[in-house]
Amino acid sequence: MSALQLYIAAVVISLAAVLVGESLCPLHPTPTVPLARWLRNLALSALALGTTLLAPLLFWSAARMLGVQPGGGWLARWGLPAWGQWLAAFLVLDGMAYVLHRLSHAVPWLWRLHAVHHSDVELDATTAHRHHPLENLFTALATLPILVLLAPPVEAVLAYGLLAVVVSTVAHGNLRLPDGLDRVLRRIVVTPAYHRLHHSRERRQTDSNYATVFPGFDYLLSSAGAVPADGGRAMTMGLEYHRDAACQTLPALLLAPFRAMR
After folding, report:
1. For the segment 10-52, what is each residue's pLDDT rounded down to a tens digit?
2. How far, in Å, CA of 207 to CA of 180, rounded?
3. Mean pLDDT of all residues in the chain?
4. Which residues pair with 175 in a beta bridge?
5. Which residues contact 86 (CB under 8 A, 6 or more apart)?
6. Is 170 within 8 Å of 129 (Cβ atoms)?
7. Residue 110: φ, ψ to 5°
8. What is the Cα–Cα distance from 171 to 165, expressed in whole angstroms?
9. What 3-state DSSP class applies to 103?
10. pLDDT the model gives residue 109
11. How far apart are the C-alpha atoms of 171 and 191, rounded to whole Å?
12. Is the pLDDT of residue 3 over 90?
């Protein structure tokens, strides 16, 4: 099975599993299936899929041009064993995701792109895949130099990508986990209650809990916000603006960053 097939399989399986979980243990019960919103989010995801896969493709192409073999970059030169290269690759990739995510909230033109993700007025598994294609392109291009310099094992890059898509899908889910279980898990991995705070309408809460897979970077860099006792049930999702139906169509979402510029 190719890397593309593995990635798509991870998306489909995790998405289906979380949507089923949402129907069984929802944080916010929904009387009807929001099919139109699901289709809109997944259509945006399909448009962004090409740029999502661009980083590893550019990495292998650039590495070949520079004569760098995967597994033969700085990580190998530092004398790290295979397991050490895997660990370093996971930490670096997750650290890069944290830095880029935090920059997307701090740099105005990056926020215009990232706001498309935050403008979803509900939160469920499909929100995880709601990103503007240009945001994914920026992430791919920003990650590329690090990948070329470190040249981690191909399998490590793929494994992190698969783990990130699964954790992100679960973290965006409209899921109600037992309080005790969520408290334990969110010390190790991003959980629905932990990430839900990040999608609050209140900007002070939005600017917290940036982690993608491992929340350790939030704890170390003082960006971890306190999860409400109700797991975020009472919070309003989305932004203070772009909440009406006209702003939630697929064309409007694609044009939103440019409208903000004007």
Report:
1. 888 999 999 999 988 888 887 677 888 999 998 888 887 766 6
2. 25
3. 86
4. 26
5. 152, 153, 155, 156, 159
6. no
7. -75, -35
8. 10
9. helix
10. 92
11. 5
12. no
Q: Where are the alpha helices (DSSP H) in 67-126?
A: 74-77, 82-106, 108-118
DSSP string, 138-207: HHHHHHHHHHHHH---HHHHHHHHHHHHHHHHHHTS-B---HHHHHHHTTTS--HHHHHGGGBSSHHHHT
Distances (CA, A) of 87 to 13, 15, 77, 167: 25, 26, 15, 17
Model pLDDT for residues 136-162, shown as the tens digit of each residue: 888 888 887 788 777 788 788 889 989
Q: pLDDT tier at 118 (50, 70, 90 boundaries)?
A: very high
Residue 221 CA to residue 201 CA, distance in Å, equals 23
Averaged pLDDT for residues 69-97: 78
Q: Residue 149 in contact with residue 65, Cβ under 8 Å?
A: no
Largest CA distance in the chain: 57
